[in-house]
Specification:
The protein is an alpha+beta fold. 33% of the residues lie in helices and 12% in strands.
Length: 132
């Protein structure tokens, strides 16, 4: 279960970076990612900092990343697939359940669950949302 939560947290953050994505078998992606919703108009917290390189040492790409089939359902990660922004699918303009249709909600749910299992100090807001 711990691997799933770590993987899910990495997936969400990795997918939400950049507009073009990256192929995981030819690149490792950025070492650090700054996350900020671009779709949802609600008041958002400070951007979140995600140390991608640190998290890569905790799980394989397939533990975290997934795709979306033509039917709109989750498909398992395949080595080399393009990593899309999470908001491509996880937004309130898609036909997803409410708990999956918002980057902020899904990120908090998965990250906090993983951090509670591994290091409770990491669930403090300022860890991911540092002051300028």
């Amino acid at each position: 279960m711990k691997k799933f939560h770590i993987g899910a947290a990495i997936l969400i953050f990795c997918c939400s970076v950049g507009g073009t994505g990256f192929a995981a078998d030819t690149e490792t992606g950025p070492a650090e990612i700054t996350l900020q919703t671009t779709i949802h108009a609600q008041k958002v917290a400070r951007p979140a900092f995600f140390p991608h390189a640190t998290h890569q040492g905790l799980a394989d790409c397939k533990t975290c990343h997934h795709g979306q089939g033509s039917d709109g359902k989750l498909t398992p990660y395949v080595k080399g697939q393009k990593i899309e922004k999470c908001e491509t699918c996880h937004n309130d303009k898609t036909n997803m359940p409410e708990n999956l249709a918002n980057l902020r909600r899904i990120s908090h749910k998965l990250c906090i669950a993983c951090h509670l299992e591994n290091d409770k100090e990491l669930i403090k807001c300022g860890v991911c949302h540092p002051k300028k």
